C-alpha cells in the first residue's frame, strides 16, 4: 500500500471512514498525524470534540480515500458520540501501555462501539501506543489476550518513533476492503493481495 496526499485525478474506488477512540492522552491525535502527515508534536493539545484528516492510499493500484476521525476522550464530549460512529467502517481503539487505567477503560469503549456503530461488521483494531516510553504497565500479552477475546486486530505502536503506525492503518484498511458489504465496489475485478492477518488472530501480521 502507498499513502499519498496528492490528487492525480484518479477517482477513488471508495471512501472509508476510520474512527479513532480511547481515553484522553493516549495519543490518538499523534497516531493520526504521524500516519497522515508523518509529524509528531510532543506538546500535542487535547482534541476538542472531533478532528479529522482526509488522505488517500493506493491499494494494489486502486485509490482508496480515507476520512480519519480523531475523537476527544473527555467525558464532556460524550453527547456527540452517536454521530462519531455513524457510517464508520473501521474503529481503532487506543490505549497507553504506561497507563493501566487507559487499558482497563477499553471495555467501556468497546461497549460504546457495539452500541453506536451502524455497521455491524465494522473492523476493529486495538492499538497499544507509547511503547517507546519507560514505565510500561500493560504487557503485550495482556493486549493480545484482550484483542483475541474481542476478536479484533492488535498492534503495539509508537507515534513518536513511527513504529507500527503505518502497519496499523494498512492492516485495518486491507481488512475492511476484504469484508463484503462494508464498502461499495463498482469495480468487480478489484482484488487485494493475500491477507496478512485475520481479524480473529489478535495481532497485526505486518
Automatic annotation (TrEMBL):
The keyword Protein transport applies. GO terms for biological process: protein transport. Keywords: GTP-binding, Hydrolase, Lipoprotein, Methylation, Nucleotide-binding, Prenylation, Protein transport, Transport. InterPro entries: P-loop_NTPase, Rab, Sigma_54_int_dom_ATP-bd_1, Small_GTP-bd, Small_GTPase. The keyword Lyase does not apply. It catalyses: GTP + H2O = GDP + phosphate + H(+). Pfam families: Ras (PF00071). Its EC number is 3.6.5.2. It is an enzyme of class 3 (hydrolase). GO terms for molecular function: G protein activity; GTP binding. PANTHER family: RAS-RELATED PROTEIN RAB. Belongs to the small GTPase superfamily. Rab family. This is small monomeric GTPase. It comes from Mesorhabditis belari.
